[in-house]
Structures are given as structure tokens and as C-alpha cells.
Design goal:
By secondary structure, the protein is an alpha+beta fold. The protein is about 45% helix and about 15% strand. α9 (about 335-350) packs antiparallel against α25.
């Protein structure tokens, strides 16, 4: 326990700094060893500087253009000379020139052509099929269908583009709001500028509370010497993950992203943007890309739909051209068979799916943003819904990243109370210098502000590494008494106590106990008098041991409990000591089965003893509650291992060291106050302190997921329903349906589905995942059931007299026997004396419109003769007979009205399915959102109006008669809303033209029929849920395990290579946000933190070089250096 028993100033690596470290003067610069690109780097940073023992110095006469300089190892004069500036900063002109040379102080951002982004929405398998349909339409001169299909494509692309662009603008607005400022000396004056405009050579002022905006070297105080001084306290937890600040003296370096905890100094900037330590690390973690899981899901659903469509196209074309011997000619309405094929293509493609899902995600993300969670990658919302395991960094995430005294565990001695101990600990603190531990002790006493009225510190001896204690001489203004307070290393303070031999065993036992609990111990002793004289009254009395730790956030425990209630287990992954991690976990109720990172390393290498009874390293990671003493690469590996065990992993963090794991995780969450590196790597950025927003975001994500799965089940069902309904009607009955109505159906129903983005849903109590097998099976059953309902309606209306006999409606029956009977009665009644087999020239209506060539010498005198009885010389054998034309016109009229009826039934029953699939309960009792009801109402009102009035016989047949003699209802009444009277000519291909005429009173039939068949949908749903165990309907534990496996399989192929920093543009990820797919062996070894490339100009002066190749080499070399270090070296 040597490390844990150290005193409060004996801090971890990189937390203190000796101002006596080795530095090079400007005169030594000529013989400076500048590391060549292939040389060795110093090994580790020790207390803020480079380890002197590991320095390699070889004289080099000249600085070549390929050399590097370590700014932590040269003095300030040499640094200013290389940067070609002085302590008064740059002029505005110099800064402008350097901004052009070195670029902005930010990480590079990819730029994309917005036109290509928009066109990207038209470049996917679903759009390709629609585009093929548009090409077929224009080839057939079907201008209306072509226009509607193209309009639908563009509408979907526009909605997706606008929604995703708005989300992107929101993220950029967030970044702008969080953009840091810097105080820089320009033209001899202090100016506040955007940190993005800093350049090498700028002199900046950094002080308490600032975030260091660029890598810089600290200049002397007020132009003084580099002798005894008060060091700055700089918190580098964002870079190292360690709790205590690091002491920085004159000549030390401060890294971009670290926070100033004490002091105010001038510093000269030596590296900006990607050249900084932070920037080089960020460049390493953005080399590969992930494809969003939602994109994969949409692609698979799309391919399933395309396969179904392709099968039905082959069946239709084979049957229509092979069995029914249809023909095609060029021109408008010249090929009804191909036109009918568009019904399958347009109706079966879920063209609105990317739009509906994108809008659902965008609106959900907007709501999450208002609750404090900014979504940086839209598809991460649905991945968060499936998250079943949350890996959390400790420092700054689960804890406050601020030391405090555990007051309940203070161990008093010599009869002192805990209150007395806290009071005298506050009096021992020197708050003038704002030393972090002194501030903690002062603030731990509840009435600390009242102490200054009664007590006065008359003398204070600061800490020094040799004595390892501080001593304050304090006078009580009320009594006039003087006493001394000593605090520091427990062993040192104990040695001062007059009865140390008596209490040493007790004190040492308590120190061990504190160490086991992860506390740092601080000793406190008191003595009367000012120290003069040797009386017994002046002897030191041990007051107490003070345990210090980094406390959890106030809401962390509740958040973890809520996560567990939502089926999400939480693991702690920290760079702190194992015992500290265990104590924090105990406080949070997380479980204390934690292991150091070396156990993970050994387990991965096959050490059976390191597995602790587990079968493999994956099971070890699953069963334990977390890992401690980890490096960034270990965090990354832990996330990857858990992902390999079929978990959807979330990762929270706030620092640069968390960035690789944040990128690797399915859901990376940057907490409030996170560094730019963490925010850039994360999928979700929290703008409110604490982790409670995570639970809110999870619940919100699950609601969004419910809406997306509702639409997915609906769209798969509609694909099967459209393809099977109209495919079967075509191949069985040789009956066609208009593309126009299918496009309108897509516009009305799919457009209304956008309302699902605001639907009222109940979030799942357990993680969600895309179970495509269940979605496809349920969609197929629903689709086939609805197909059965449509077929039954068609069969009942067209092949029976049911509606005529029992409902008193006109007949839509097109059976040949029925039509012959009706035509005989109608012709006999309306055209007495006309032979049924006579040419239509016998009907005055047709004799007037037919030319003399068509009717030849035929006159009304021959009306009683059939065509076979007329001699060839009459020339009327090429025109249809009266019976043929009568049947053709009746089939045409009844078929056109049947299309309106079937359209309404398909529309109503199809969209009503949404209310069934959105919830497992009885759909009538589960209240949906108002927007969902309104969308259904308006869409079906529109469908009813179209069905009622139709389009007056549009599309007109190509081969037609402009007037008709038999185009009446079966009751003999005129056909409503059919004023054109254009009908096809019997015996031509035009008899299959899919025209549309309003079905009038049959709209009531469509609604009632849909309602009757709707009743059975709920029992079918319950049967499917039980059989498929949907959402744990039958067995929750088995369902959850299956869901985890499905979730991982759905993402196991998601990683693809792409341009650095961007991902392929798609509906799911149109912003091209990148994430990581392959592990980096390490981020950066800190030994190269202050190394920058330099060059020699034409005048022979050495200056900083802006060389991307050299910068990348430094980054890669330092990463390889870390990877090659042994476990012992890393620990050291």
C-alpha cells in the first residue's frame, strides 16, 4: 500500500513539477539534440516534465529541415527565438500571416458538396427501383405517373435533406456556443479573441478557470527570473484521467484542453490545431468509419421488399405474356401490362421509409436536445434504445473530479470531536494560494467563512518535498491564545506526536483501512504556543486522520439505479487505482467485483488464472463490475470485447483519454463539460451536469425506436399486401390496377406516417433491437391477411351478386354469364330488333361515329342480322358485335368502379394496421397520439373523396369509342361522374386499360368491410407475439438474450473503410459523421507531448514547421512506442 499511503502532495505521475528540471539555454541551441524522425523519444513525463534519466543528448551541429524540438526541454529564450517572437506577443499583421501559414487552431473539418449530399438521397436501392419505374413510365408516355413518381422521389429527398441539415446546423450551433475564447497580446494590448484564431508565437494569458486553448510554454512571472515561485496548478485529467492537478513552473508546458486550477501567467503558444498533443491524438482516432446500424436495417428491409417485388414482376410478366398472350405497342397506353407492372414496383417499395425514419429521428433528437442531450449522430438514437450495457469513466463522469473530505470517516484522536477536527483542518489551510487540498479542507468545515472573524494566521510554512508537511501558526483573537497546526503525510505528522509510540499501531491500522477503501490519508496535529520554548505544553498532539476522495455526483447513484431498472447494467472503467474504484462503486451500489487492467491483459493472453473461473475474457468482462488502472487502449478493448459478446455498449466520458472508447462504443456519450475531443468522438453530448439525462435519453430513444418499428412493421406488411393483392388479381383474373392510385396511396398513407414521429407510445422496459426475422414474419402474416380481405372483397363484388341482392347496390359482377344475361335484357329493352351478334354499326350511337370505311355499306335495315349472316362485301367483319361491345363496356365500367372501391379498402385497412402494430395490447384501448389520429383521418377522407368521385374514366383507353351505348349501371341508370363516355373497343388490348370511375355508394362498403376484417387483426397479433415471443410476450429472460444476439448480428458487418473523417452519405447518415471501426494500439505516449517539427529558413533561423507529414510521423511513432512498452513500463 505504499502508493496509497503516500501523503497528499506525493501525487501520481504528471502532477508536480520541479522548476530545477533540465533546460537548454539559447546559447546551447546550436548544439541541441533535436530528435530525428527515426530516433528514440524520452520515455515518460515525470511531474510535469520529461524524465531526465531517459534523455538522450547527442551534439548536432546544424538543425536540418527534418528535425524536431521538444519545447518542454528548452528554455524560454530558445523557445521565443524559434517562434520568432518576444514576450510582448505578435502584431496583428504577423498573426494574420501565421494564420494563413499554420491554419486555424482547430481540428480539420471535412467539407462536402451540398448538391452531392442531396443527390445522395436519390442514390440507394429503394430510389433505384422508383427511378426505374419513372423510366418505364416515360417510355410508355405515361406522363401523369412519371410526374407523380418523380415528385414523390424529390419530396422524400427534400424532407430528408432539410431535416438532417437542420440537425447538422443544431450541432454546429452547439459547437459555436461552446467555442473557447483566449486573451492574447496583439499589438502590445490584451485582446479577447476566438481561440480558433491563435497562432504559434502568440503570447496568451491563462488564469484560474481557463481552458488552455493551445499548447504553450509558461513565461516568467512579471518578467522576473525563473527562481523560487508559486507554481500554476493545471488540471490535466482530460488528458491523463488523473484527479489531482499538476504543478507547472516557468518553462513548463501546458497542453490544449487542460484546465487552470490556480495561478495566472503569460504563456507563448508553440503548437495549434492538429499540431498540438490533443490534435495528434484526435487525428489517430478518426482514421476509420462505421456504417450506422439504422442504415443497415433499412437496407435489409429494402432488399427484402425488392426481392418480393422482383419475384412478382417475373411471375406477372411470365403469366401475362405467356399464358394470357398480351401484346405491347409503342406509345401512350400501348402496353397496359407494363403499366400494371408499375403497381407492383411503386406500391411495393417503401419509398417513404428513409424519410419517415429520418423525420422520426430528427424530431426525437430535437426533443432530446431540449432535455439536455445533443445528438451528434442521428442514428445513435436507435442504437441507444438497444443499449443494454453502459461503460462509464469514473473521474469527472461518475464523480465530481474534485477532492473532498469524507467527514463521516474522519478518525479523531486524543478526545477531539469530528467537528473540532474539521474546524482546525480549515484553520490549517492557506486559501490565499488556492492550493487545491487547502481549499478542500477549508470548504469541508460548514462555518468556514466565520473563522476569519475570530482567528488570524500569523505565520505559515508551506509544503516542501523534504519535510512533507505544512505548518500554520494561528492566533485566537478572542482569547489571545496562539497555537500551531501541522498537516501532511500521516507518518510525518504521527512522528511529531508526543505519544506516537502509543498510538502508532492504531494510526497505521486506520491508514491501511483507508487505503483499502481507496481513500488518501492526511494527518493533522495541534500544539499550543508559537513553538518557542521547550515546555510540555508546546508538544504536538495528534488530532485526526482525514480521509480524502473524489466524491460521486449527487445524482449518479439514482441514475445507475434507473439504468438497471431499464435493463441496462453499468460498469466502471477508470484509470484510477483499483481500491479507489471499488470504494466509489460501493458508494454507488454498482458492485465491487473489479479488476486491474493487468488482469484483462493476462486474460487476453490466455492466462487461465487471470480468468477467475470464467471460460474466456468475454465472460470475465460481462461478470465483473468494472476495471481500474486502465489506459485508453484498454478502455477501447473492453468495449470491443463486450460488443463481441452480443451487447449493445454505451460509453460515457469527458476527456481525451475516453475518446477512442467513445468512438468504438455503439453509443458514445460525452458528459457536461467534456473536452472537444470527447464531444467530437461522442454520438450524444450532454449539456446538463450529471448522468440523469442519460436515462431520460434512453427512455426517449426507446420511444423513438417504438415509432420506427411500428412503421417498419407497417411498411413490410404493405409491401406484401400490395405485391400479393395486385399480383394475384392480375395473374388469376387478368385484371389490372392503375399506377396513379398506387402513387396517391403512397403519398397519402406514407405521408401520414410522418405523424408517427409524434405518436404516443409506451417505452419498452428492456433494451430494444431490430429483430428483422420477426418483423418480416409478422409483416408477411399481416400482409397476407389483408390480401385475403382484399381478394374476398373483389371476389364478392365481382364474382357474386351479394351486394346487389342483400345491399340493394348496383352490380359490379363481370362474370360472362351474368353479363350476357344483362346485355340481352338491356339491348332488347333499349334497342329492339337489333341482333346481339350484329355489328355495332346496328346501334345508332356507333353508326354516327364510325366512318363509312368501318361500317361499309351496312345500314339499319340489316340490324336484325348477325355478322356471320352478312356477305363479305358489307365490310363490317372487323368491327365488334353488339354483344361483344356491350360486355366490353360493362366490364370496363364495373372494373373502373371496382378499382375505386378496392383502392379505398386497401387504403383504409392498410393505414388502420398502424394502430394494431404500435402496441401489444388491444388496439382500440391503446390511445395513440393526436397527430396519428388526425393523419389517419385526413388521409382516409382524401382517399374516400377520390373513391367516391374517381377521375372520370382516366386513364382513357388508347383504342376507344368517344361515345358509348352500354356504359350504364346494372340498374340502367347513368354512370355518375363519367361524362366523357370514352370506352375501349372490344377485342383490342385497350380493354385492359386500368381506368378509374367513382364507386359512389360503394365507399360505405369499403369502410364496413375494412372494419369487419380489422377486428381479427388483434387476435392475429397476439398469436404472432406468443409464437415469436415478440418483446418478451411469452418469456422475458429468453427474449432479452435473443435480442442481444440479434442486435449484435445486425451490426457485425457494419464496419467499412471510407475517407478519413467522413462516412458514406446515406439517408441514415447524410452528414457523413465518422466513427471508429479498428482499434488504435495507443493514442499517444506522453513522452512526445511537447515535440514539434522545426525547419531552417533561408536566413538560417530555426522556426516551427507546419509539416503534416512530420506531425503524422510523430503521432504514429509515439503510438507505436506505447504499444511496445511492457506492462511494467506502463505502470512505472
Amino acid at each position: 500500500f505504499g502508493i496509497l499511503l503516500r501523503n497528499y502532495t506525493d501525487v501520481p505521475v504528471n502532477h508536480t513539477h520541479s522548476h530545477q528540471e533540465s533546460q537548454l539555454t539559447s546559447s546551447q541551441l546550436r548544439t541541441l539534440e533535436c530528435q530525428p524522425s527515426g530516433g528514440s523519444s524520452p520515455q515518460t513525463l515525470s511531474d510535469g516534465g520529461m524524465a531526465e534519466a531517459s534523455e538522450v543528448k547527442v551534439e548536432v551541429k546544424e538543425v536540418s529541415s527534418q528535425d524536431e524540438v521538444d519545447f518542454s526541454k528548452i528554455d524560454n529564450n530558445a523557445a521565443l527565438k524559434i517562434l520568432q517572437c518576444d514576450a510582448h506577443g505578435l502584431t496583428s499583421a504577423q498573426a494574420a500571416e501565421r494564420l494563413i501559414e499554420f491554419g486555424a487552431n482547430k481540428l480539420p473539418e471535412g467539407t462536402r458538396n451540398q448538391l452531392l449530399v442531396f443527390l445522395g438521397y436519390l442514390w440507394n436501392p429503394l430510389s433505384w427501383a422508383m427511378e426505374a419505374a419513372a423510366i418505364i413510365s416515360i417510355a410508355l408516355l405515361d406522363y401523369a405517373d412519371f410526374a407523380l413518381i418523380v415528385a414523390l422521389l424529390i419530396l422524400n429527398a427534400c424532407i430528408s435533406y432539410v431535416e438532417e441539415s437542420n440537425a447538422d446546423k443544431a450541432i454546429k450551433a452547439l459547437a459555436a456556443a461552446l467555442a473557447p475564447k483566449a486573451k492574447a497580446l496583439r499589438d502590445g494590448e490584451v485582446n479577447t479573441i476566438d481561440a480558433i484564431n491563435l497562432v504559434p508565437g502568440d503570447v496568451i494569458i491563462i488564469r484560474l478557470g481557463d481552458i488552455v486553448p493551445a499548447d504553450c510554454k509558461i513565461l516568467p512571472e512579471d518578467g522576473g527570473s525563473e527562481g523560487e515561485e508559486t507554481p500554476m496548478q493545471i488540471d490535466q485529467a482530460a488528458l491523463t484521467g488523473e484527479s489531482l492537478p499538476s504543478k507547472k513552473f516557468t518553462g513548463g508546458v501546458a497542453f490544449s484542453g487542460s484546465a487552470i486550477k490556480q495561478g495566472e501567467r503569460h504563456a507563448v503558444v508553440y503548437a495549434t490545431g492538429v499540431n498540438t498533443f490533443f490534435g495528434r491524438a484526435a487525428a489517430l482516432i478518426s482514421s476509420t468509419n462505421n456504417v450506422a446500424n439504422l442504415q443497415i436495417i433499412m437496407t435489409r428491409i429494402g432488399y427484402m421488399c425488392l426481392i418480393t417485388i422482383g419475384i412478382w414482376i417475373i411471375i406477372e410478366l411470365t403469366v401475362q405474356f405467356g399464358h394470357y398472350s398480351h401484346s405491347c405497342v409503342a406509345g401512350e397506353e400501348g402496353c397496359p401490362t407494363l403499366t400494371n407492372m408499375l403497381v407492383i414496383i411503386v406500391g411495393g417499395i417503401p419509398i417513404a421509409m428513409p424519410t419517415v425514419l429520418s423525420v422520426t429521428l430528427a424530431l426525437g433528437a430535437f426533443k432530446l436536445a431540449k432535455e439536455g442531450a445533443i445528438v451528434a449522430r442521428m442514428s445513435a438514437v436507435e442504437e441507444m434504445a438497444g443499449m443494454d450495457l453502459l461503460c462509464s469513466d469514473k473521474t469527472g463522469t461518475l464523480t465530481l473530479n474534485k477532492l473532498s473530505v469524507e467527514t463521516q470517516s474522519v478518525m479523531p484522536y486524543s478526545g477531539h470531536s469530528i467537528t473540532d477536527c474539521l474546524k482546525y483542518a480549515a484553520l490549517s489551510a492557506n486559501i490565499v494560494t488556492e492550493e487545491p487540498i487547502d481549499m478542500v479542507l477549508y470548504e469541508s468545515y460548514p462555518d468556514s467563512k466565520g473563522l476569519k472573524d475570530r482567528y488570524k494566521t500569523v505565520r505559515y510554512v508551506p509544503f516542501n518535498p523534504t519535510d512533507k508537511f505544512t505548518q500554520a501558526t494561528v492566533r485566537d483573537n478572542q482569547t489571545g491564545e496562539t497555537f500551531r497546526l501541522c498537516k501532511g503525510s500521516p507518518q510525518v505528522v504521527l512522528a511529531k506526536a508526543w505519544n506516537s509510540s502509543e498510538i502508532s499501531e492504531q494510526v497505521n491500522a486506520k491508514m491501511v483501512e483507508f487505503a483499502l477503501r481507496g481513500f488518501r490519508s492526511l494527518g493533522l496535529a495541534i500544539a499550543k504556543g508559537d513553538g518557542s520554548g521547550d515546555s510540555k505544553e508546546n508538544r504536538w498532539d495528534m488530532m485526526c486522520l482525514l480521509p480524502m476522495f473524489d466524491p460521486p455526483r449527487h445524482d449518479t447513484k439514482e441514475t445507475i439505479e434507473r439504468c438497471q431498472q431499464q435493463g441496462i447494467s453499468v460498469k466502471m472503467i477508470t484509470g484510477d487505482h483499483l481500491l479507489i474504484g471499488k470504494e466509489t462503486a460501493k458508494m454507488l451500489g454498482m458492485g465491487t467485483m473489479m479488476y486491474p487492467s493487468e488482469i484483462l491483459i493476462k486474460a487476453k493472453q490466455g492466462d487461465v488464472t487471470a480468468l477467475h473461473g470464467c471460460k474466456d475474457v468475454g465472460e470475465l468482462c460481462e461478470k465483473c463490475n468494472g476495471f481500474a488502472e486502465v489506459f485508453p487502449e484498454h478502455k477501447y478493448e473492453i468495449v470491443a470485447i463486450l460488443q463481441g459478446c452480443d451487447h449493445v455498449v454505451g460509453m460515457t466520458g469527458d476527456g481525451v483519454n475516453d475518446a477512442p472508447a467513445l468512438k468504438k462504443a455503439d453509443v458514445g456519450i460525452a458528459v457536461h463539460g467534456a473536452t472537444d475531443a470527447a464531444r467530437g468522438a461522442a454520438d450524444i453530448v450532454l449539456t446538463e451536469p450529471g448522468l440523469s439525462t442519460i436515462v431520460t435519453a434512453v427512455i426517449g430513444a426507446r420511444k423513438i425506436f417504438q415509432r420506427m418499428t411500428t412503421y417498419s412493421k407497417y411498411t413490410v406488411s404493405m409491401t406484401f399486401r400490395i405485391c400479393f393483392t395486385f399480383g394475384l388479381l392480375t395473374v388469376i383474373y387478368d385484371w389490372y390496377f392503375p399506377t396513379l392510385l398506387i402513387v396517391i396511396l403512397a403519398v397519402f398513407n406514407d405521408g401520414a406516417m410522418i405523424a408517427l414521429a409524434k405518436d404516443r407510445v409506451t417505452p419498452s422496459k428492456l433494451p430494444n433491437s431490430w429483430d428483422l426475422k420477426n418483423i418480416f414474419l409478422m409483416g408477411m402474416v399481416y400482409g397476407l391477411y389483408l390480401t385475403l380481405s382484399s381478394w374476398a372483397l373483389y371476389q364478392t363484388a365481382v364474382k357474386t351478386q351479394f351486394f346487389q341482392e342483400y345491399c340493394g347496390l348496383f352490380s359490379l359482377n363481370d362474370q360472362d354469364s351474368n353479363l350476357i344475361t344483362w346485355c340481352e335484357e338491356h339491348i332488347t329493352r333499349s334497342f329492339p330488333g337489333v341482333n346481339l351478334e350484329a355489328p355495332i354499326c346496328a346501334i345508332p350511337t356507333y353508326s354516327e361515329i364510325l366512318t363509312a370505311g368501318e361500317c361499309g355499306t351496312y345500314t339499319q335495315a340489316q340490324a336484325g342480322l348477325s355478322v356471320s349472316d352478312l356477305p363479305q362485301s358489307f365490310g363490317v367483319h372487323d368491327v365488334p358485335t353488339v354483344m361483344e361491345q356491350c360486355k366490353t363496356e360493362q366490364i370496363y365500367i364495373r372494373g373502373a368502379m371496382m378499382r375505386s372501391l378496392l383502392y379505398l379498402q386497401v387504403s383504409v385497412s392498410g393505414q388502420a394496421l398502424v394502430f394494431v402494430v404500435r402496441h401489444q395490447g388491444w388496439s382500440i384501448m391503446q390511445r395513440a397520439g393526436l397527430a396519428t389520429y388526425l393523419a389517419f383521418l385526413f388521409a382516409q377522407i382524401g382517399a374516400t373523396v377520390i373513391s367516391l368521385f374517381g377521375f372520370g374514366g382516366y386513364v382513357p383507353p388508347r383504342h376507344n369509342y368517344e361515345s358509348c351505348a352500354f356504359c350504364v349501371l346494372s340498374t340502367g341508370k347513368k354512370v355518375p361522374f363519367f361524362n366523357s363516355g370514352v370506352v375501349p373497343i372490344a377485342g383490342t388490348e385497350s380493354v385492359y386499360t386500368a381506368s378509374i370511375i367513382g364507386c359512389t355508394s360503394y365507399v360505405v362498403v369499403a369502410w364496413i368491410w375494412s372494419g369487419i376484417w380489422y377486428v381479427l387483426l388483434d387476435p392475429i397479433k397476439w398469436g404472432l407475439c406468443w409464437a415469436l415471443n415478440e418483446d418478451g410476450f411469452r418469456n422475458t429472460p429468453a427474449w432479452q438474450k435473443n435480442k442481444q444476439s440479434i442486435a449484435r448480428r445486425s451490426t457485425e458487418t457494419k464496419e467499412i473503410q471510407g475517407p478519413a473523417g467522413t462516412a458514406p452519405i446515406s439517408h441514415a447518415n447524410p452528414m457523413g459523421r465518422a466513427s471508429m471501426s479498428k482499434p488504435v494500439s495507443a493514442v499517444l505516449d506522453r513522452s512526445s507531448a511537447a515535440v514539434v517539427p522545426v525547419k531552417r529558413d533561408s536566413m538560417g533561423n530555426t522556426t516551427v514547421a507546419n509539416d503534416p507529414v512530420r506531425i503524422a510521423q510523430i503521432a504514429r511513432r509515439s503510438a507505436l512506442l506505447r504499444a511496445s512498452m511492457t506492462a511494467g513500463q506502463v505502470k512505472e
